[in-house]
Design goal:
The protein is of the alpha/beta class. The chain is built from 16 helices and 19 strands.
């Protein structure tokens, strides 16, 4: 089991309910947790909305509210939004009578008395009736935010009325900027976007539940809202199958470094990559590595571009590598690397911009075969013959880390359809003796036993070069040698992801450059 300061468990819904009921044994404790959940959801929504545009003073919010605690969370979130934005307007659609609401949800509703517009929906209204109500509430304008607090975990099977009509009408209503679900979207169990609330974001509160990490469910981007349930560490009956990474995993990078420390104490990363026709990938990887906090970086680049690249990153030491006629690294020059490894490198990154020919494959194979230090393979080094050698490394050698996206993972797996399930990922890592960072909307880090989810980053990373920056950061963390391999890789993963989110919140997801991510690295670590 992981230190809960580093990662929190992902639990089945039934286990989560039992665990939560054991923690919240009184109405006072339940109200405190509901208040924290609503506050956390509101704050997260405001941050995520900023990826579209600055939050307007006259924010317009639509809350869909059921009778249970899920509805209470949504109502408290509305209360917090109104406290932050006094000019905001909130419309609440109740899917039940007040008399049917649970006491704490009703208490949350009472807090909003006189400050929101409230309407009720009945089963006989149907989709058209709800659509008419939405038109009346919005009065020709748009809702900035729609918050789904109807059912959450209570969504089982087909939606009964009026929930089905509410979801259908809201999904079809075009004038909503951001759609957010509390805990889980209403109707999520159907696994269909037409039958479930179409969420841009799902805010999982208190305990990370397994359905929120189902890559095939229509959940939008998943956020985990920590309510302190694992502080102090709570006992679990058995080790969970997976965990969600916590921002506190970055805390070791936020401390004072020892006053008398030498640069060599922070590791030395060797970076091997680039080609005459693709030098940019190597450049970005080296730039990111330099900013990872590693003490030293040595970059091995094709001779024709080494001088140009060295002028752009003078902090790294550059070694010109003889080229083939294709402008790729010549495998005959391997002694350039091997003779420098002894008592110098603490990790080697191989792959960014190398190109895919037989020569570069031989270079990567020799690195996996002969380098004793931890090796991180990225991009063009992610090929089946290279991966197969990882399982044959000597037992005393360091780990091999790979960073594939879905297509590269399929190629490495040598399968017509790669098994991307958690079980399949574990088997892949065990078979080839690898640690894998499988890049996706929900990126997973796996060493064959543990699976760690990263929920941060977002679509701003869906552009060329983001993987090269990730490789440089994780390679730098791997070289520094503080903590377990999973902890070190997690730091690079989260630093990359949080920096991307800051970029998107300040400049949006579209008109940005990949290298701008690096401008936000200090802000992530300094908490600004």
């Amino acid at each position: 089991m992981f230190d809960h300061q580093f990662a929190h468990p992902i639990l089945p819904c039934s286990f989560a309910k039992t665990f939560e009921s054991g923690l919240l044994g009184s109405e006072k404790a339940e109200w405190r947790a509901m208040s924290a959940a609503g506050l956390g959801v509101a704050r997260a929504i405001m941050q995520d909305y900023a990826e579209l545009r600055p939050v307007p003073d006259h924010l317009s919010v639509l809350a869909l509210v059921g009778k249970g605690h899920n509805g209470g969370d949504a109502l408290i979130a509305c209360n917090e939004i109104l406290a932050r934005y006094p000019r905001a307007s909130v419309s609440v659609i109740l899917a039940c009578e007040e008399a049917a609401m649970k006491p704490l949800a009703l208490r949350a509703l009472r807090q909003l008395e006189g400050r929101v517009r409230r309407e009720s929906v009945w089963p006989e209204m149907g989709t058209e009736g709800v659509r008419g109500l939405l038109e009346a509430l919005v009065a020709g304008e748009s809702f900035d935010i729609c918050l789904d607090g109807l059912l959450g975990l209570a969504s089982e099977g087909s939606l009964r009325e009026p929930f089905g009509s509410i979801v259908a009408a809201v999904n079809a209503f075009q004038r909503i900027e951001l759609r957010a679900a509390v805990d889980l979207p209403t109707g999520y169990a159907d696994r269909s976007e037409s039958a479930s609330f179409k969420a841009d974001f799902t805010y999982c509160t208190g305990i990370a539940k397994e359905p929120a990490f189902d890559m095939f469910a229509p959940l939008g981007r998943v956020r985990y809202i920590d309510l302190g349930f694992f502080e102090p560490v709570a006992a679990l009956e058995e080790d969970p199958d997976a965990y969600v990474l916590m921002p506190t995993a970055l805390d070791p990078l936020r401390c004072f470094r020892p006053a008398s420390v030498d640069k060599r104490k922070f590791g030395h990363l060797f970076v091997v990559g680039g080609s005459a026709f693709m030098p940019g990938a190597l450049l970005m990887a080296v730039q990111a590595a330099v900013r990872s906090g590693v003490g030293l970086v040595t970059a091995f680049a094709p001779a024709s571009v080494a001088a140009t690249l060295s002028a752009q990153v003078p902090e790294a030491m550059w070694v010109a590598w003889p080229e083939t006629a294709n402008g790729t690294l010549n495998p005959r020059a391997m002694p350039l690397l091997l003779e420098r490894l002894v008592n110098k490198a603490t990790a080697v990154l191989c792959g960014p911009g190398m190109g895919q020919d037989r020569n570069t494959e031989m270079v990567a194979q020799d690195i996996v075969r002969h380098v004793e230090q931890p090796v991180l393979l990225d991009a063009d080094a992610l090929r089946p013959k290279i991966i197969e050698l990882a399982s044959k490394r000597k037992r005393g050698f360091g780990p091999v880390v790979v960073t594939p996206h879905a297509g590269e993972y399929q190629r490495m797996s040598k399968a017509a359809v790669a098994d991307v399930s958690n079980a399949g990922l574990r088997d892949f890592c065990k078979t080839y003796r690898l640690t894998t960072i499988l890049k996706a909307p929900l990126t997973r880090l796996c060493d064959g036993d543990s699976i760690l989810y990263n929920t941060h980053g977002g679509p701003v990373l869906s552009r060329g070069g983001s993987g090269d920056i990730l490789a440089g950061l994780t390679g730098g963390m791997l070289a520094q040698g503080s903590g377990s391999v999973l902890e070190r890789l997690s730091r690079g993963l989260l630093l990359h992801a949080f920096s991307a989110e800051l970029l998107a919140r300040e400049s949006g997801q579209v008109a940005v450059q990949t290298t701008q991510i690096m401008d936000y690295l200090p802000r992530v670590l300094r908490g600004s």
